[in-house]
Amino acid sequence: MLHWAPYPFIRIALSFIAGILLYTIIGEGFRFASEVFAFFVLLFFGLYLYSRRVKAADVNTWVGIVGLFCFAASGFWLTELRTPHLKPDHLTNLRTPPAYYTGVVSDFVVQKPGYQRTIVEVDKVLVNGEWQAASGQVQVTVPHDTPEDYTFTYGDKLFIKGAPQPVAPPLNPGQFNYREYLQLKGIYHRQNLQAHQFRHIGNGPPNLLLYASISVRRFFEETIREKVTARREQSIATALLLGVKDDLDNAVRDAYAATGTMHVLAVSGMHVGLVFGVFLLLLKKVIMRKSQRLLLALLVLVLLWGYGFMTGLSPSVLRAVLMFSLVLLAQVLSRRHNIYNTLAATAFALLCFDPYMLFDVGFQLSFLAVIGIAALHPAIYSLLDINNRFADGVWELFSIAVAAQLITLPLGIYYFHQFPVYFWLANIVVVPASTLALYFGMAGLVLSWIPYLSDLLFYLHYGFLWGMNEFNQLLMNLPGSLINGLDISALQSWLLYGVLALLVLFLVQKQLRYLVMATAIVGVLSVQQIMETIAQQNQKNWRSIVCGAAAPWVL
After folding, report:
1. Measured in whole angstroms, how far is the alpha carbon of residue 132 from the centre of its chain?
2. How many Å is the maximal CA-CA distance in the chain?
3. Under 8 Å between Cβ of 434 and 233
4. Quick check: 411 pLDDT over 50?
5. CB 160 within 8 A of CB 101
6. Taking the CB of residue 330, how many other CB atoms lie within 10 A of it?
7. Could you give the CA distance from residue 483 to residue 420 in angstroms, rounded to a whole number?
8. Which of 1, 23, 84, 540 is deepest in the core (most CB within 10 A)?
9. pLDDT score of 540 more than 50
10. Of residues 195, 95, 103, the one with CA closest to residue 145
11. What is the predicted pLDDT for the residue at 283?
């Protein structure tokens, strides 16, 4: 039986997530979110005051249940508040398209060969000859042939001619729904601009901290381009160290996707964890008296958030930095902490800021990977007892890679429709190589003002990047390296997670009933697959009959 007492934030986060999911089902047709939230809050305080008088266990239980309903109602209400198009002045609610509008660049500028793309936060529109306040985000794209300079920068105020267009839906049923992807980020419109359609009218960054962070990241980006001259390794260096993936070509992306190592090219939890680990290692010899614990925590937190600052404060980095910050504070305060409770607290804090982050693929995969490593890695690692230190290190890397891949496998198939066969081998080599490349690259950036030392560090950084690139290319060219065309529904992905959970319970508790239930779910999945195959074959045969019948008339 699961005891919930040690995991308060898991209950809170799950209740909050339930409210978010409920809003996606019935939210926009329901206009009493604030009233429902107020009702549960008042009911909670009423029951709490009553429980203080009667001191009954049953009443305390109901206080806890109503408290969770409060968090579910808050998730529902907050999602409504964070839904952009419900605002009366949003672009989607304009009856007449604007002739002109003004706005500010509110996001990073993505620079690609031939064009640049960013997000403009609209503040005013010209409709029927009158300016009026407006809200909404527009994804704008401009042609650009000089990769050295940016057309836009964060905080630029723009005067734009023309009306932004709603993002078009996908043309085919199975096609990636880019409109839904943008709407979950609060973006409902796009516009392709030519040089004569816009002009700069000033600069006013909406967030000075983010503006400074982007400026620092651009400085380090130029340093990398100066130190690493090879085009392929240069693009990977900026992705690995700073999270800038603008220059990655399709060949590199395909190689890393085919080997299941794409995660090393995105500044994420793994990178922050490596930086966090080396900081703790450097400070390990500090005497840990009670008076020094807070100082140690503050120093590591400054270094950790400093790393996030130099990478542009991207959402993936902020997720990881926040999680490790909570872990560190729990350790320093000498309180019993649990990784699952810490993850739940991190997720709750992030979702309070943006409930729609729940539907972000990176958000889902990053949390699942950490959960998989925490839950599955010890069991997999304990299967073998290896005395050799090197072999044991390889086995630990293998078990970590398998744990992360297993927990993200159903979701990865659901979103990307592919499975990298040699992920276990690739991660054994690529993860250590990327770790050393990260350390040497970070040291090279910090010490870039020391000529010969920085050159040496970047030379070693380049060597590890070249080695892992060649290894990935080798694995990608092996037969059967990538299984494509895997198409499953959301229900089937949940069933796969059910099979995985039951198999883990069977291995841990050695109870046959879990294996029987897992086998039953596999049977259901098999029947679904057979029915889908039969339906596809019947549809194919019907098309052949129709085409055959139509052929004489065509002739």
Report:
1. 36
2. 92
3. no
4. yes
5. yes
6. 17
7. 6
8. 23
9. yes
10. 195
11. 55
